[in-house]
């Protein structure tokens, strides 16, 4: 009788490789209207009820339109509509002498006076159709103010992560009319308006409270 030896394979099988744990889901971007401190509100639009805020010329960020940013991670996207200001006169429109060309320049600054970005709105006014809105609260027969926003420029600005608050300040206003041209830079003058201010950001993670260590009490 012949004996046939069958070799034994004693090599152990390798366990299947473990899949790496999936990364935690990225925090979703949040879009909301921020908290705003408006030193000189123009008022609410008659039709849209949109709030318009005057932008004053100045050099101190504390005197501008202050936009507070909630706790965030990464940069914040700030958006708003920028408008020129026009003092409406029905008599001038009927006489064909209401033409005005406005160019307003404003700056968005950090609270240490560092300029983050500039924005410009330019438009021409001829008739009431060039007004964005009429503002309620005036003394006229229709209950509207003579000053009204004209022209709209949609502004998008990226705010660095380190900033918790920014200021919107006016720099200069150039006006061209039939009777001449002028440029205004003196501090404290309203030269533009902003509306529909929004921010988009990634919320900062909520910090878990540190547990309080309990000591043993002896008897």
Fill in the keyword field for this structure:
6-stranded antiparallel sheet; 219 residues; 1 helix; mainly beta
Question: Can you describe this structure?
Answer:
The chain is mostly beta strands and 219 residues long. It has one domain (30-203). The chain is 3% helix and 47% strand. It is built from 1 helix and 12 strands, in the order ββββββαββββββ. The protein has one helix spanning 90-95, and strands at residues 30-32, 35-37, 41-44, 51-56, 65-68, 72-87, 100-110, 115-125, 147-159, 165-177, 180-184, 190-203. The strands form 2 sheets. Strands 1, 3, 4, 6, 9 and 12 form a 6-stranded antiparallel beta sheet that branches. Strands 2, 5, 7, 8, 10 and 11 form a 6-stranded antiparallel beta sheet that branches. The mean pLDDT is 90.
In short:
The protein is mainly β and 219 residues long. The protein is 3% helix and 47% strand.
Helix and strand topology:
Elements: E1 30-32, E2 35-37, E3 41-44, E4 51-56, E5 65-68, E6 72-87, H1 90-95, E7 100-110, E8 115-125, E9 147-159, E10 165-177, E11 180-184, E12 190-203
Antiparallel strand pairs: 1-12, 2-5, 3-4, 4-12, 5-10, 6-9, 6-12, 7-8, 7-10, 10-11
